[in-house]
Amino acid sequence: SLQTKEQLVEYLTVVIFTASAQHAAVNFGQYDWCSWIPNSPPTMRKPPPTKKGEVDLKYIVESLPDRGRSCWHLGAVWALSQFQENELYLGMYPDEHFIEKPVKEAMVKFRKKLAEVAKVIKNRNEGKKLPYYYL
C-alpha cells in the first residue's frame, strides 16, 4: 500500500514511464531490429545446441524459420512498430482534459523538461552511424 505522497509520486512515475517512454523505446524500433530474421527469429527449425562448438553456419541457416513464417514475422513487427496517424506523445494533452491554471503551468514546465531531454538525445545522435530515434 502507498503511505505517503512521495510513494504515490514514485508509483505514478513508474506507471507513466512504463506506458509511455519505455513502451516507445521497445515498440517503435521492432521493425528496424527484427526485420533481419537472424536478429529475432520467430521460430527455429532445429533444437538449440547442447554443447559449445557444435554449431556451424550451415546449422544456423538450417535452423532459421522458413519463408512463410519469416513473412508472417515481418508483417507482425512492421505493424507493431508503426505510429498511429492520431498518435499523442508524452506531454501532448488535449486542452479539454486539463483547464486549471496550476495544471496548465505544470504541463508547460513538463514540456520544457521534455524539450531539454530531446535536445540531449539529438546532440547525442550527432554523427552516429546508427542514431536513436524512438524517444
TrEMBL record:
For this UniProt record, the keywords arranged alphabetically read as follows:
Dioxygenase, Metal-binding, Oxidoreductase
Q: What GO molecular function terms would the record report? A: dioxygenase activity; metal ion binding
Which InterPro entries does the UniProt record give? LipOase (IPR000907), LipOase_C (IPR013819), LipOase_C_sf (IPR036226)
Look up the coiled coil feature and give its residue ranges: none
Say if the entry is tagged with keyword Cell inner membrane: no
Question: Which residue range or ranges hold the Lipoxygenase domain?
Answer: 1-135
- Pfam families attached here? Lipoxygenase (PF00305)
Q: What is this protein called?
A: Lipoxygenase domain-containing protein
- Origin organism of this chain? Cirrhinus mrigala (Mrigala)
